[in-house]
Amino acid sequence: MSKIEQLPVSGCHPVDGDRLRFACYIKEFKALHAVGDTKNAEKFLAEIIDYIVDAFSDQERMMTRIHDERSNYLEFGNHLREHANFFVSLREARSLGNLEAVEFIERWFINHTINFDIDLGRFIKTVSPHNQASCGQFYK
Ligand SMILES: [Fe+2]
What we know:
Elements lengths: L2 H4 L6 H4 L2 H16 L3 H33 L5 H21 L1 H30 L13
Helix pairs in contact: 3-4, 4-6, 5-6
Fe (ii) ion binds next to helix 5 and helix 6.
């Protein structure tokens, strides 16, 4: 089991997302890269980046809602900056190569999940009157 699959969850499904799919994309990329299939490996790199873009978009929508309507999400600004800085760092990592980019994404995702996303999910659950069952009300 990969480190991503072993990450703790917040219990808020939209924040926890589909990490198994994300972990699978990374495994597939590495397997294809290892055998020199760069063309197909690049397809998985594109899937990985699409996943991140979608996850950021969903989280930022939820953060905006809880920050504006329900309570004051104190990490709002820091969390948004983390997402924005990711793309700056990703551009640098991609200039080193696709494998370096995927290894950067994997490290960044693990650190970001531990330092921001788990707390966001738990915060949403605390401000949501119906807790876990209604956590999805902040989603889309
Ligand atoms: Fe996040």
